[in-house]
Task: structure prediction
Amino acid sequence: MISSIFGKTKPVNFVILLSFIFFLYPVANVFVLGRDMEDLNIFKEIVVLTVLLFSVFLMDFIVKRNKLTKNNSYVILFFTLFLMTFPNALGDSKAILCSFFLLLAVRRILSIKSLKDIKLKIFDASLWILVASLFYDWAILFLALVFSAILIYEPKNLRNWLVLLSSSICFILILFGFLSVFDLVDWSWEHYRFRADFKTLFAAQLSSSLKLGIFLILNIFLIVWAFVKLGKAGIGRIIMIRLVVLILTFGLLLNLLVVAKGGNSLIIVFFPSAILAANYVQSIKKEKFREILLMICILLPISILLGSLFIS
Result:
């Protein structure tokens, strides 16, 4: 039943999932996080929700364009389920916006495989990552993903490495030009400090987060499974999966550093994690087992979400 719906790409899948996210966003902010409606900037929340909904389309485009899964909607399904499991992630607008620009960067990085317009793609990807760093300074870690892509596809071309430098200079000039106009140059020095309070992290976050621990174990399992089972695929697919694993790794590291500063950027991890989860589900040959697993994957987040609503 479930696999017959999400096991194929249908417009109705977007209607179902986007409608649910549209409903989940205000519910998470008001009832789970306990934010007062009077304190919310409605225009800002509409913009953030629009970006979140558009991100779902962008994820689906990236997956289909690069053939990261078979022809199904499992990635956007798992992304929605992760949002249900961690509704607190919807309360951090900076993380949602940061995730969106990182998705734009990932789109360009994965497209380097075609070996066409490599320099332009490197420039775009680097620039989008730097824009994402405006929301969380540690997002700049994803520049290492651009380095990795260059090493994989065309490391001997010196111009590829110089493009990284040129995009950084371009970003700095535009940023300081904009801040100078509004007399906000000091903001850049305050924002790009790259500091983290690890005492706060270990004392208040990891010690009490059972869900986060289970999510981390799940991702470790998916990474190991991907290298063991998908390692027999063609060289092109292996490279793509390795890049997805790198995206997941950088996302987990970014979340660790952001949580230590009082933020919540876990939503950045949902996309690569959903890709690996989708590959695992579609690899199950027994239809009954796949249906049971999908049913559990759907009922469990719903139960967690309802529990969060009643507890709050």
Residues 118-194 form one domain. Residues 137 and 190 are 10 Å apart (CA to CA).
